[in-house]
Amino acid sequence: ALSAYGTETLVKPGDELDEEQPVLLIEPEADPEEGKAKVKDVTSEPTPDVNLETIIEVKKSAPAEAEEPIAADTADTAPKATKKKQPKVKHDEAVEAIDAARADKKIRPKAEPDIDIAIATEGPAARASFEILGASVPPGATRHLGWRTRAGFGVLDQPTPVLVVHGKQEGPVLCLTAAVHGDEINGIDVVRRVIHGLDAETLKGTVVGVPIVNLPGFQRGSRYLPDRRDLNRHFPGDPKGSLASRIAHSFFEQIILGGCHLLVDVHTGSFHRTNLPQLRADLRDQTIADMVHGFGDIAVLQSVGARGTLRRAAAEAGVPSVTVETGEPLRLQPSEVARGVKGVEALMSHLGMARERRLWKHPQPIYYESRWQRVQRGGILFSKVKLGDSVRIGEVLGTVTDPITNMGVNLIASYNGRILGRALNQFVMPGFAAFHIGIQSSQEELISETEAKGLEEMNGEATSEVVDESRPDRLAD
């Protein structure tokens, strides 16, 4: 047999050949005079980029042996002659046939390629393409894909943009999501800047970015979906549930479980509140705690997360996840966006996905507990403290003034800690959560409190504070 470039190779029955590879058919045929194998060349010129495997098929047949004549007087009585089976041609005979054909110049060896075949076939396997949403992204490439909710909209189901950067080198798959609440636009720019700042040639691993998860809410400038539900209270979702549950299920199955190793979900404050750039994470999980450490000196708030949040559902599904909170809704704040980008880039450096960056100068402040300071009467809220300020019990946080009588009352701090979030100056009602104070309790106290709450829940004695965790002005993302 003859290979693509003239090298002799034996082919066994059942050997697998590539579809587009050229083939030489060697057909030994009966020739009373010469007894030589006739060579039929049906090759096409080989291309240098195909796999250099054996591309020969030997048709195993032999010249038919002459049959003995049957005598006329015995033709009616003698049994009919049967054709003898043709013996199979062995591989050695096939090689001899090729040599004979070459001697007659019926086959001319092709020039050897300019590449080192041994290196081309024996080197390390190339990095595999990244498969997601039915698409294949090759190493070193960036692709813009579309996720469809499959929630029953039919032709009106508008694809949500999904950006994928698949690095040439091995590494983890980091997923970035934003605008799960449609009015939180700082996160959209965080994802944009991170994704478009990557170089697929040098990236180690893969980054999947979904800048606008809640596209219907974003288009309406609303936190919620068209069915007035909070998407971030319905993960991992239900394919037969409400609209929010169906969309959550589709996103969770196709994106989060579609290949994410780690998740960073970007949010802002809600309902006319603003947040200090911070992480929210369940630090009891060591993998998540290590992930948090990679963000640098950004403030960290211990939080399991409300049931139904993307972060909690992903963590429970085995995908370590954190929430980045930065700024306020319905506004694009470049300084807050920059802090978010800085944290994500520091994490990628920590994971070995990008070049090492030394971005932080201060130790990471961690708050294992937090409390909301609420107003006691309605009126116009005027804040006297800024995000990040440290406060002590008895300190004035702001005032609430009656717009009719012009009488005001001071809002006094009930806790020692740091302002992690606050309401913007606005008209407030009694009980409105105005200031979010982070309290630096110890990790041991956190573990003890968590175990105590777990026992209460098991005994059916959960407090109203635990049950009320899903309210939008609570700690939930």
SSE topology:
Layout: E1 24-27, E2 38-41, E3 56-58, H1 91-103, H2 117-122, E4 130-132, E5 135-137, E6 141-147, E7 160-166, E8 169-178, H3 186-196, E9 204-210, H4 215-220, H5 243-256, E10 262-267, E11 273-281, H6 286-293, E12 299-302, H7 310-316, E13 321-327, H8 334-350, E14 366-367, E15 369-374, E16 379-383, E17 390-391, E18 396-401, E19 408-412, E20 417-423, E21 427-428, E22 433-439, H9 443-458, H10 464-467
Parallel strand pairs: 1-3, 8-9, 8-10, 10-13, 11-12, 12-14
Antiparallel strand pairs: 1-2, 4-5, 6-7, 7-9, 11-13, 11-20, 15-22, 16-18, 16-21, 17-20, 18-19, 20-22
Q: How would you characterize the overall build of this protein?
A:
The protein is α/β, with parallel strands linked by helices and 477 residues long. The protein has ten helices and 22 strands. Strands 6, 7, 8, 9, 10, 11, 12, 13, 14, 15, 17, 20 and 22 form a 13-stranded mixed sheet that branches. The longest helix has 17 residues. It is elongated. The N terminus and C terminus are likely disordered.
Percentage beta strand: 15-25%
In terms of quaternary structure, the protein is single chain
Class from secondary-structure proportions: alpha/beta
Radius of gyration: 36 Å
Mean pLDDT: 77
Total of DSSP H or I helical runs spanning 4+ residues:
10
Give the overall shape: elongated
Summarize the structure.
The protein has helices at residues 91-103, 117-122, 186-196, 215-220, 243-256, 286-293, 310-316, 334-350, 443-458, 464-467, and strands at residues 24-27, 38-41, 56-58, 130-132, 135-137, 141-147, 160-166, 169-178, 204-210, 262-267, 273-281, 299-302, 321-327, 366-367, 369-374, 379-383, 390-391, 396-401, 408-412, 417-423, 427-428, 433-439. The protein is of the alpha/beta class and 477 residues long. The radius of gyration is 36 Å and the shape is elongated.
